[in-house]
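Below is how a single chain appears once it has passed through the pipeline. First comes the sequence as given, then the structure the pipeline wrote out for it. We keep one example in the README because the format questions we get most often are answered faster by looking than by reading.
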Amino acid sequence: MAYDLEEQEQIATLKAWWDKYGNLTSWVLIAGLAAYSGFTGWSYYQRSQATQAAALYDEVQAAVNAKDNAKVLRAAGDMESKFGNTAYASMSALVAAKSSFEANDIKSAKAQLQWAAEHGGDEFKSVAKVRLAGLLLDEKAYDEALKVLAGEVAPQFAGTVADRKGDILVAQNKLVEARAAYQAALDATDKKNPGRQLIQLKFEAIGGSVPAAKDAA
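Resulting structure:
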């Protein structure tokens, strides 16, 4: 069917526009499609990583239940090397550290906690630092323990970190600094937190004084 005059004019206008901008438009479209393809590919990759990491974490847990620390460490090592950017890797490191501690393999426990402290998310890093500092405290490596606790920590762990610092400073007989650490721990710990009472007992045991609670008006 022949085009009428108006349609021919529209086609001529479109051809002229395409001659001027068509190549650019093609590249923009290609770039957009490539970006979308890359996004969907990355999303698939992320889902695949998470699925595989979850399966491997199940292996870690199964090895823990079987009290096979060697297998726990192998699975945790695989997790850290293959899926180190997932939360499962941090969880595996903490689980492996606990398993190693219970198996009296303190070296491996420290190595797993060090990994989590360096590579985990904020919450995992904070937990790992506190636990690692505790192991170093047991070894009387006080300066190293305090170094582990230095730097930023997740806000919700500020009280726990300060409490651990207090323990280390008491072991060093630095009571003034220990009182300051315990005071910071009390300030950062909710009054409804069951652990607060223990912090207060330690604080008072080295000469700290907690103001008596005021009665409500």
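The first helix runs from residue 5 to 65.

See the next section for the split statistics.
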